[in-house]
Amino acid sequence: MTDYLRYVGGKEAKADKSLSPVGLGWVNVEGGPGGNPEATAGARAAVKYVNEKLGGIGGHPLELKVCTVVSAEEEGQKCGQQLLGDKSVSAIGVGNLYLGDASFNAVVAGKKPVLVGVATGPTMPTAKNTFSTFGDLPHIFGAWGTYSRDVLKAKTAAVIHTNTPGDKIASSAAVKGLKAAGLKVKSVGFDAQATDLIGPVTAAGASTADVVVPITIGSGCVGVAKALKQLGVTKPVVATPLCMSPDVAQGLGGDLPAWTYGVAQTLTADSSAADSKAFLTASAQVGLKKDTAAKVFAPLGWSTVLTYAKIFNAVGPDKITPATVTEQLKKFTGPVIMGAAEVKCGKYKDAPAVCNDQARFYQYQGKGQFKPLTDWIRPPQ
């Protein structure tokens, strides 16, 4: 999706500042270690774009009401209370709420709709009146099976994961997806503090497997990459976007591992993709810095706000309430900006907030260059 004006149903004009603003709540983890301020930067840029280029919401200015979680779970409760109590806010957008999501959802509890790009927090996929346009890792992982079977023609897989609650859930989903595609899978976990991973990588059978799937973050990605190099493993490695972070490149001497990465969004580094070009051009017009735009959560924030602009315009500025917005979100089937052409919310009974289970795969070629390998792939049917 590249025509933002048509997408949101707006007008080529500036919002009328004399009209009352339409409030949109926003929650994100930032301001401390492990935060993603680029998600909020992407959301703010999208609000500015809506107001300067797309006529606001039926002429009314769109206004972002931001609440941040810095480092503690209970801060999510504060944000929930703040945005629930703000009468100008009928709906809430979420950046990366991997912390504070439980206390946030306990307060909001479906009273106002919540739209999130990727549902990272463990309670997000099951939260009431919550909609995740890019899905969550457990449901996207099915595509790893399809890719391994149909593209790599793999028969065996080695899964290596961190023994953290989140990565255990993700690894079991990856194993399930790989097995559903007919692969024989061996899965081995390792302690999050471990740095020498030759043992677990060997135990998972990486030396003989047709495909290696690391499910970890930061130093874990570094450890797996070093172990595979020491063992001389040359078979394809299919990783998640969590191994595309700057600390991984730093730990490996300045660049990311030359692996295949499965992602639920079109990468901004994909110069062949029209939606990437549209995002980079439009966001630059409203001041989003290029290095910020390149981080995965910036386009997610941008996409979430523009989806809300589409929903708000469909409802009409004078009829926006939690109920009318929720009703429209339930009908939303895509396309998703920087995401899949078609999504289905409520497809999974165990995770009603998950609207997407598709991923696309890229080969990292070094020095920031990604080569697209596939279009959108679904889990094994």
TrEMBL record:
InterPro entries xref list: BCAA_transport, Leu-bd, Peripla_BP_I
Q: Name one Pfam family in it.
A: Peripla_BP_6
* Transmembrane stretches, start-end: none
Is-annotated flag, keyword Thylakoid?
Answer: no
Using the record, list the residue span of the signal peptide; answer none if the entry has no such feature.
none
Keyword NADP among record annotations: no
Q: Where is the Leucine-binding protein domain?
A: 22-334
Highest rank taxon of the organism? Bacteria
Q: Which UniProt keywords apply?
A: Signal
UniProt record similarity statement: Belongs to the leucine-binding protein family.
Q: What is this protein called?
A: Leucine-binding protein domain-containing protein
From the broadest rank down, the organism's phylogenetic lineage runs:
Bacteria, Bacillati, Actinomycetota, Actinomycetes, Kitasatosporales
